[in-house]
Amino acid sequence: MDIGQSRPQPYFPALAPLTDKLSEYAYPLIRIVAGLTLAPHGCQKLFEWFGGNRVGTAALFSKVGLEPAMSLVYLTGSIELIGGLCIALGLFTRAAGAVVFVMLTVAWYKVHLVNGFFWTKLGIEYPLFWSLVMLAFAFGGGGKYSLDEKIGKEI
Questions:
Q1: Cα–Cα–Cα angle for 43, 85, 34, nearest 5°?
Q2: What's the pLDDT at 32?
Q3: Segments making up each domain of the chain, as ranges
């Protein structure tokens, strides 16, 4: 905390010891869940697990002008799987966050923008949100309880 800044007083002071203790786990929790949420999307594209379909994904990529479509399916799947695992582990977190941010920005811009904002209409809401979460990891790094911290290095 910066000198001269005061901390807001809790509405429920009796909970302060609990919230003080748990607050250090907030960022790692978001990082782990975000990474583990992203990784299965890579498994869909690379291994056709969880209902994935490479040919269908390649057809979608072609339809929106992303070529060579099948090569981009493999690239996207690799970014999702490897990037997701790196983010979850907090390993090379800044680089993984930046790469995933770029991939998701392309996704919402090239695929979802034509559908408007709301995800219920396949709009940009969901991929835009996740791209900004990944940008936060690119800026913030792995943080506490990450392999980056344990190793003592980050990109």
A1: 95
A2: 98
A3: 26-151
